[in-house]
Design goal:
With about 375 residues, the chain is an alpha/beta fold. The protein is about 35% helix and about 25% strand. The protein folds into 2 domains: about 1-105, P-loop containing nucleotide triphosphate hydrolases (Rossmann fold), CATH 3.40.50.300; about 115-365, Rossmann fold, CATH 3.40.50.880. It has 12 helices and 17 strands. The strands form 4 sheets. Strands 7-6-8-9-17-16-15-12-13 form a 9-stranded mixed sheet, with helices on both faces.
């Protein structure tokens, strides 16, 4: 299977097949004859163009496939199915084709293209200049929106420079705040201010990896009164090490090969928001971190209202923190975005987007009420 480009020259109103012909010629010179051509193009290839490519590339016309530009990558399987790509491949491999069932996938794409509403999510991160840095997060948020027939508008906000009281002005018109993972000190204080805003304004908040750690730091400082509480990653001399290096790394200065990586089990506290989202008390999630919650600070944090609702079965690691008296305020040490799929949105993203939708209703209703008051006063 060979992927080629069939560019459309707007000035000439013509699809050019020469790049494809030349590419196949080069392949033949090294002894490779393609069985199928996936022709990238801005538009569908007319029959005469497909036949021309088939003739000059010695490929059957049915195996010249239009890989046209689409709005979402999730439309690609449907575009290929329309042209029988799966059947052609199986036939070439000498395999029997079973019944094709893309009904759920097609319904998912239809819902994605025809949402019933929308939510605006502020993603406050360190690498937002390059959106693909958060590719898995972006897709997981879209999956969460699909579960509610909502379009998720992601607003990329640079955490570096975000400070009080400016955070409130920047974040006031969003329906949810998400702080993702990251490494290094740059932008951390901006994340903490974004989290403070979400907590105080009762805006749904979702913290992932570093987003959970900064959530703990913010709570320790501003609710528990532990001034200068921090992570030893950013301030080794902090008097309140609420986040510190994994205990098995004590005395280890080398960075290579020192992460807690892969899937680990986690037990959820019954009745917690995490338990409500998952519908079970035992989960398995993927991890990628070097620092952890310091359980020495568990008494003071829980006394002030923070709940630690997810732990490893041996009780060593705290995996989930949340606030029960907040509409939705949850942080997890693991990376749930890695397990989200369009047909199976991750439970936490589904719950977060659901909470954001409810917040949007309240936020817009409050704005309408305020506008009416101004009108009456005038």
């Amino acid at each position: 299977v060979h992927v080629t480009l069939v560019p459309f020259i707007a000035a000439a109103h013509e699809l050019k097949t020469k790049p494809t012909q030349h590419s196949v010629k080069e392949l033949r010179e090294i002894g490779i004859q393609p069985d199928m051509l996936l022709c990238r193009s801005e538009q569908d290839l007319p029959e005469e163009v497909r036949e021309k490519i088939a003739l000059f590339c010695d490929v059957s016309a049915e195996a010249v496939i239009t890989a046209r530009d689409v709005a979402s990558v999730y439309e690609v399987p449907l575009v290929f199915a329309e042209q029988g790509v799966d059947e052609i491949v199986l036939r070439l491999l000498g395999m029997e084709a079973g019944p094709r069932d893309l009904e759920r996938w097609a319904e998912m794409v239809r819902r994605m293209k025809n949402p019933h509403g929308e939510v605006d999510i502020a993603l406050v991160g360190k690498y937002v200049r390059y959106e693909d840095s958060y590719k898995s997060l972006k897709e997981a948020l879209l999956h969460g929106g699909l579960a509610h027939d909502l379009k998720v508008n992601i607003h990329w906000i640079e955490s570096d420079g975000l400070a009080a009281p400016g955070a409130a002005a920047v974040l006031a018109d969003y329906d949810g705040v998400l702080v993702p993972g990251g490494f290094g000190q740059r932008g951390v204080e901006g994340m903490i201010e974004a989290i403070r805003f979400a907590r105080e304004s009762r805006t749904p908040y979702f913290g992932i990896c570093l987003g959970m750690q900064t959530m703990v730091i913010e709570y320790a400082r501003n609710v528990c009164g532990l001034e200068r509480a921090h992570s030893t990653e950013f301030d080794p001399g902090t008097p309140h090490r609420v986040i510190y290096k994994l205990r098995e790394l004590t005395g280890v200065d080398e960075m290579g090969g020192t992460m807690r990586l892969g899937a680990y089990d986690c037990l959820l506290e019954p009745g917690s928001r995490a338990h409500e989202a998952y519908g079970t008390t035992k989960i398995s999630e993927r991890h990628r971190h070097r620092y952890e919650f310091n359980r020495d600070y568990e008494p003071v944090l829980t006394r002030h209202g923070l709940r630690l609702t997810g732990r490893t079965p041996d009780g060593v690691y705290v995996e989930i923190c949340e606030l029960p008296d907040h509409p939705w305020y949850l942080g997890c040490q693991f990376h749930p975005e890695f397990k989200s799929r369009p047909l199976e949105p991750h439970p936490l993203f589904k719950a977060f987007i659901g909470a954001a939708a409810e917040h949007r209703k309240r936020r817009l209703a409050a704005k309408e009420a305020e506008a009416r008051q101004v009108t009456h006063a005038g």
